[in-house]
Amino acid sequence: MGAHAISFNESISWQFELDIIGGTLFWCNLAVEDRRLSFVAYDADRHGNFYISVWEVCDDGLFGRYVSGVYRHFICRWNSSGKDCGYP
């Protein structure tokens, strides 16, 4: 997919199909001014069909919503590494 520059109040979307033999993985790196965040956005081995479909980048960190959910889940604070994020 490569790098994408997204401005305030803009969004990006994409679709994908799972690899037949597994191993589909999306890793995300975010940067806003001096704040950074890296996390696994989707890992077929861990998430299967239960995955966050909407990610929200906010002043206090990263939030997400599951496919059928309305509730916003806190994922992690800025300048956290992937291992510190609360996305199962």
UniProtKB/TrEMBL annotation:
Chief localization: secreted
Protein known as: S-protein homolog
Keyword annotations: Secreted, Self-incompatibility, Signal
Ribonucleoprotein as UniProt keyword: no
GO biological process: rejection of self pollen
Family indicated by similarity: Belongs to the plant self-incompatibility (S1) protein family.
Taxonomy, superkingdom: Eukaryota
Source organism (scientific name): Linum tenue
Localization: Secreted
Transmembrane segments: none
Stretch forming the signal peptide: none
A GO-annotated cellular component: extracellular region
Matches recorded under InterPro entries: Self-incomp_S1 (IPR010264)
